[in-house]
Amino acid sequence: MYDIFVKTHFSSGHHLRDYPGSCELPHGHNWNVTVTVRATELDDLGMGIDFKVLKKHVYAVVDQLDHRNLNEMAAFADINPSSEHIATFIWDQLEGPLSHERYGLYSVSVYETDTSGLTYYGPRT
User: Fold this and answer.
1) Is 61 helix (H, G, I), strand (E, B) or coil?
2) What is the mean pLDDT of the chain?
3) 92 with 99: CB under 8 angstroms?
4) Is 112 among the domain residues?
5) Number of domains into which the chain is organized
6) What's the pLDDT tens digit per position in 103-112?
7) Has residue 48 got a pLDDT over 80?
């Protein structure tokens, strides 16, 4: 087993509707994201997934979030753009493109700060 990951970041603003505190007010974060693919075997070149391929897909999704008011995105019209929902959004966008007979999406980690974040492992089956 090989866990192959890409770390990236984006900046955006949001607010948490009906939150009992200051996070209900508009504010921003410099979010850090780690996307991990788990490979069960290597290709003929000795790679689980080419970093170039992984980065292409991850950056395309993260670019949708960068420099946006997340509350104005259709994906967050009916749900709060919490770290949990952002991780789910990234997962949902990447699960298909990162599905292969040798590898698949394993986890998405989202950090609001250097010391606070979460890891999402996909929906329960």
Assistant:
1) helix
2) 96
3) no
4) yes
5) 1
6) 999 999 999 9
7) yes
Residue recorded with tokens 């997962």: 91
As annotated, the active-site residues are 23, 67, 112
What does the buried/exposed string (b/e) look like for 58-73 if buried means 16 or more CB atoms within 10 Å of the residue's CB?
beebbeebeebebbee
Name the residue type at position 87.
A
Q: Is residue 125, in this structure, part of any structural domain at all?
A: no
Which H helix or E strand runs over 2? strand 2-14
Distances 55 to 31, 38, 65, 86, 107 between C-alpha atoms, Å: 17, 15, 15, 18, 15
Element (H, E) at 103: strand 103-111
Q: Residue 47 maps to which CATH number?
A: 3.30.479.10
